[in-house]
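S.,

Sequence below, as promised.
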Amino acid sequence: MKLVEEVNLESILPSNGPSINEVKKYLNKYKNEYIVVKIGGSVLNDEKLFKILIEDISILKKMNFNPILVHGGGKRLTAKLNQLNIESKFVEGLRVSNKNVVKIAEEVFIEFNKEILNEIKNYSVNAKSITSKENNIISVKAISKELGFVGTPYKVNTDILKKIVEENEIPIIAPLGLNSDNEVHNVNADDIATFVASSLNARRLIMISDVAGVLDKENNLISEINSAKAKEMISSGEITQGMLVKINNAINVADKVKGTVIIDGRVVHSILYELLSDKGSGTLIRA
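The prediction came back faster than expected:
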């Protein structure tokens, strides 16, 4: 891989993304740094947005950053289960997964993982799948009997991850893990991304969803907050529902991850604007 200074930015950056002059200021900031990216929301189901995001992540790799992808796929799984006339049941936002459901989940997520891998390769960047059947790095424990084969991660094999990165490939992690008996479990992708980022002391954990970030009382985007301010906003009820989980995850890893960012995947090139422009794109949460 070329030195950052030798990369022809004009040839790899999109014309409607951050300016070359802005990008140059951030090249060395993230050079060889781990950037864990959790992709979810509309970007997974909109072909145009999906292709743009994958191209952006490929650009990060070409600039000698170390992106690590964690993907969801819940909507795809729901669609598949509906097709098979299997009802989806949820407890506190987590899908109840018996042996049959988790088998279908494994098939759906691995298929989607391969789609992402092939799309990345279209941009002349190498990638490697991490699933329950291939290069598994996620060790889990079952959350409860009620949920069945739904796990929470307690260990990540960072040696495998680092080796993949050293081989100049982008790791693509499916929302799956194995317990001590090698049984497959469905795992929340946010939990995996958070655990991986903290295990690697990542420079950034980027959570891509369908929200712009944290908003103030006037619905204006807050570009940066610290953990103390985030806790205040939770106590006052300003941060609620789905955002509450994301912010709590960010607070929990603030001592190990240099910054967690929540950005809107529906905004074109949002990840490039967040990392490579002065203005940023979403909300950055720091210690």
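The mean pLDDT is 93.

Coffee later?
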